[in-house]
Amino acid sequence: MKRMIRWLDKYFEEVILCTLLFILTTVMMTQIVLRFGFKIGIVWSEELCRYTFIYTAFFAIPYCIKRKSMLRVDMIVNKFPVRVRRVIELALEVVCLAFWAYIWYYSWFVLQQSLYDEQRSTTMGIGLYWVYGMPFFAFFFAVVRQIQSLYYTIKNFKKPPEEKSEELTFGAE
Hints:
Distance between the termini: 16 Å
Shape: elongated
């Protein structure tokens, strides 16, 4: 069980992102070949590709948090001494956690509303709660990864900068 949890911790987002990108490219390539080679097309392919692209964008958020590759402008922060930089990094971790938790909280209401409306997609006929529910799950994982990142930052607060690794590996001690 512990091995499975570590595997999920390490590869969860990668598996989801790779699967979604595989579906996206396979369906789009099939659509291109059918449209230009055989003059026929798949009606639902563009809608499926749009949804997988949306899912990929949302699941890229926890993946970027895990890899410590969120977009930052740290030109000014790098001018400070190491101790001050670490305090600023800790404050940013807390602010990001509050931000992801806030968005996750309100994405719950979007999911509830989409379940209540029972709208269906145009060509595939699936419930739009599958699309509107994705932010709820993706932001949940973003909150989990941000908590891991905050833990990692606190744990390594006093270590020299060269000893810190770039990717989060929670529980790999």
